[in-house]
Design goal:
By secondary structure, this protein is an all-alpha fold. It has four helices and no strands. Helix 1 (about 10-25) packs across helix 2 and helix 2 (about 35-55) runs antiparallel to helix 3 (about 60-75). The longest helix is centred in the N-terminal third of the chain and has 19 residues, at about 10-25. The radius of gyration is 14 Å and the shape is globular.
């Protein structure tokens, strides 16, 4: 989404908020500002879902990203021992 004007800022903020809530409900808690591997993957899924929502294609997001959603959910629920120690 290459948007060079501010007229859609409010809409994009809403879409990002909705997407964060959606991904968090499917995968578990992660930080939008964190730098852990699971945070970065969660951030990417939020951006991708927002892109789908912006283009009126959100109904295709889950099918197209199901493996990433499942993998992130598993990694958040069952972190590797090295991640838990960090």
């Amino acid at each position: 989404m290459h948007i060079s004007h501010e007229s859609e800022d409010s809409n994009l903020k809403d879409l990002l908020s909705f997407s964060y809530a959606y991904v968090k409900s499917k995968c578990g808690d992660f930080s939008l500002e964190g730098d852990k591997e699971t945070d970065i993957r969660g951030q990417e899924l939020v951006l991708e879902r927002t892109r789908y929502a912006y283009n009126d294609a959100v109904e295709f997001f889950e099918d197209n990203f199901l493996s990433e959603i499942m993998a992130l959910g598993i990694d958040i629920a069952y972190p590797l021992e090295s991640d838990a120690d960090a």
